[in-house]
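Entry for glucose-6-phosphate complex. Fields follow.
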Amino acid sequence: MNNDMKWAALDEAMVASSRKTIKELFAEDPGRAEKFTVEAAGWMLDYSKNRIDKSVMKALVKMAEASDLKEEIEKMFTGAKINVTENRAVLHTALRNCDKDAKVLVDGKDVIPEVRKVLDAMGEFSDSVRKGQWKGYTGKKIKYIVNIGIGGSDLGPVMANIALTPYAKRNLKFYFVSNVDSTHLAEALREVKAQETLFIVASKTFTTQETMSNAEAARAWLIEKLGSKDAVAKHFVAVSTAADEVSAFGIDVKNMFGFWDWVGGRYSLPSAIGLSLMIAIGRKNYDKMLKGYWKMDKHFRTAKFEKNMPVILALLGILYSNGYGAESYCVLPYDQYLSRFPAYLQQMDMESNGKSVDRDGNEVEYATGPIEWGEPGTNGQHAFYQLIHQGTRLIPCDFIGCSKTHNPISDLHDKLMANFFAQTEALAFGKTADECRAEGVPEELVAFKTFEGNRPTNTLLTDQLTPETFGALVALYEHKVFVQGIIWNIYSFDQWGVQLGKVLAKGVLSDLVAEKPSMKHDSSTNQLIARYRKAIGR
Ligand code: G6Q
């Protein structure tokens, strides 16, 4: 990695980028849209409404080259232990490798046969639930599926379950319990009947406090409702890498679906963590989703950087973060089925690249992972878009949409898409004071009704949200995040930042419940503990 060259390339990109506005760039080149559009795995990315021209993109690509990106991509795909602080390979791409002759070695062992074995086991199990062959303890078919997991073992399944609703078996009802707030579990249990409920305990480690507490409470509820411990085997399955912990919990390991330490939590949706999704949409659709992931993987691994969709998104993100100082970026899906996609991306991006030391352990001198946020359009338009259009902060946005809806009702979809396209137009081109005056805006209101424009957006468009295009979309962002981590020279696949709070929570918990609490905390924390104990009469 040549750091000097990398940052010099960004400076070069910034000089070229600041020369003209997006409006000027469009005015001087009628063929601009086509020049800055790429296609991959069913998605079109139009990135022409950015502060870029050919020379900016060339300089940004130099950044990627100076970061040895090509070599780093190969290291990931071939199972090198690039998650250095945990001494692990990073192989979520092996989970969806659809090449029939695929071979991916970890410590000299090909992992593909195991991946396919688990997929087949998941397929058999989901089929039996879907067909009503898997019976509960009292002989009833399963109607309710409750996935208990948190973080990477929850956000992906929830988001995908909503995204692929049109492909789901509608007579099965899905619930996702993650929070250790008892309300979350209680509300799900209110809706389901024990005889017809399957609990999936999804936890890589099977030791996570929230998940295990919820799972134990759900088990106690089931035993109470069905009157026997023997019921657990028919109503609980596990998704985990920890067979010992699973069997200690009381789940037969033959009802455990495994995965491996080289699958990071936030990258685990296409592993057995997707079991609830497979039950919803069936093996065939699940395989189509994997194929979509794989198409994007192949594109990422082989396309030249200039035409590489994840690389382009990543480089543009770096231009705005490190060049223009943007603190955040917004993801705006114009598809209700993608309503949880921004929340899912928050973990993927912010847990991966929210780091402040580089790969040598030195504090970085530049901004790393941005804040990611967003809501589905058009709701956001009536809420926070004001700030994006006329506020003082630069917020680059990704607009995501689909040409065909699964639910045509009168002209609603035309209206949705009209808003979708119009927003990127308004953000890029704005409205000048003279244009306002020409429209007859009174002089005293001109300043308020002027839109500066020059606000960058990417537009991602596909024909329809299908399992395949959905898989490709998730892979697109996974790889974007990877590329940025490489350029920032940070480790994207660990998450040490979540540890401290977990450890402290144990100490606080013992003070909340102890007869004589130690109260060895700071004065604020001690005060909060005392107030809580008093309120509940402890
Ligand atoms: C994700 C993180 C984290 C993890 C949860 C759940 O990358 O590692 O969000 O997924 O803490 O962990 P378990 O699956 O082990 O319960």
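NOTE: The CA atoms of residues 86 and 494 lie 7 Å apart.
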